[in-house]
Amino acid sequence: MNPSPLLHTMLLFFFFFLFSSTHSSHLTHNHKATISLSFPLSSLPLSTNITSKIFTTSLSSTTSNNYNFKSSFKYSMALIVSLPIGTPPQIQQMVLDTGSQLSWIQCHNKVPKKQHAPTPSFDPSLSSTFSPLPCTHPVCKPLIPDFTLPTSCDQNRLCHYSYFYADGTYAEGNLVREKFTFSRSVITPPLILGCATESTDPRGILGMNLGRLSFTSQAKVNKFSYCVPARRTRPGPVPTGSFYLGNNPNSLGFKYVQMLTFSQSQRMPNLDPLAYTVALTGIRIQGKKLNISQSVFRPDSGGSGQTMVDSGSEFTYLVDEAYNKVKEEVVRIVGPRMKRDYVYGNVADMCFDRGDVIEIERLIGGMVFEFEKGVEILVPKERVLADVGGGVHCVGIGNSDKLGAASNIIGNFHQQNMWVEFDVANRRVGFGRADCSRLTK
Ligand SMILES: *[C@@H]1O[C@H](CO)[C@@H](O)[C@H](O)[C@H]1NC(C)=O
Ligand SMILES: *[C@@H]1O[C@H](CO)[C@@H](O)[C@H](O)[C@H]1NC(C)=O
To answer: What positions belong to coiled-coil segments (predicted)?
Structure first.
């Protein structure tokens, strides 16, 4: 089904454009071009609490402050892409996050000693297209409804932001305008970005949600997709997957589910209207459909219960009612082997010791997340358990309520080895089976 490995290699190492007369893309100076850019993507552990930050930023896009991310993970996997920013381009590593809005780049060299900088931080003085955003810009207002970044005017009349996270770390800097320079002919207009002058994290964030200031919206990306490589289970090179902006040549095999969309005026306190929300309909374990009402996976009148596809979350999270049904079934199958009184990161309590892993995988078998029209995410038995360190392996699902979130969240742990396409223009999310790391060989 997949094109030859050689073709993929070419796609990955050269920018690849498909031209079509029917669409126009704002990503380019050449009008009438439907763009297709591809980049290597890797799934890397972050030593910082960045997962918690992404949650905080995505959850704070709702009006309510009821939900704050409470826990932290020592070992969180984030999807990392390297993108060319500025003129001439400087390559910047960014965490791909479909759950948040504003993109950030690192504009300082103060990386904490222990974390070696993955790439040099962005140097504004070397870019001819960089400009700071003046305080008079409409975005530099502290309380515009869909954008809750706290801003102020600094002594140079520039728009300053500072962001403090639930875990006590922070980032601050200026809002700026800068272009993404993919090639000579494929250049975005100047986009509003955060340019961090102080921060505790070594990488930037590529905010890809539906908000008007996300990279997706500002660059008018009509679709994007990624393929998360399966995690390596033993030491070796980090496997590389792919990230596409625009058309994906593999998309013929994708199966789509409609996105549930919400108007900005429909303000429900616990709903994130900017997330990629899909209608999960059920969960199967070992082929057995769990008795979970479908309404648990959809927003209620207060907005709780939406199901979002979030590349910035490692684990999948289920609201209490669904989590308990999954746990009930896991306990029924392997209850006596479960680690007693053990809770990983305050959210996941279906855990096992290393020695039991193969047997537990065999007993639990595969898991399936079901959507409308027979679209499914198949989780094979060898990817039901996540290695959380210290010889402990847990079912890669956490309890949203313990997280302090009101949503069901499909995390990147359950997006391994498949294409996930966010077709913004057609308001749908596509899934396609793939061997993501083989794409690059
Ligand atoms: C992560 O968060 C926890 C608690 O919120 C904190 O104790 C820990 O120092 C943080 N780790 C890093 C690397 O920032
Ligand atoms: C399914 O769950 C509901 C409520 O949780 C319960 O009332 C019902 O009896 C269950 N059905 C089966 C077949 O277990």
So the answer is: none
Mean pLDDT of 3-22: 31
pLDDT digits (tens, 9 = 90+) for 330-377: 999 999 999 999 999 888 999 999 999 999 999 999 999 999 999 999
C-alpha 145/C-alpha 150 separation (Å) is 12
Of all protein residues, whose CA lies closest to atom 14 belonging to ligand 1?
Answer: 48
What are the phi and psi torsion angles at 137 (to 5°)? -65, 135
User: Whose atoms come closest to the Cα of 49: which ligand?
Assistant: 1
Residue 343 phi/psi, 5-degree rounding, is -130, 120
For the chain, the average pLDDT equals 81
Q: Active-site residue among 201, 272, 310, 401?
A: 310
Closest CA to 276 of 69, 58, 102: 58
| Substitution site in 46, 49, 53 for ligand 1 pocket (most atoms within 8 Å of beta carbon) | 49
251-440 CATH: 2.40.70.10
Q: Does 97 participate in catalysis according to the annotation?
A: yes
Domain range 39-233+242-246, CATH class: mainly beta
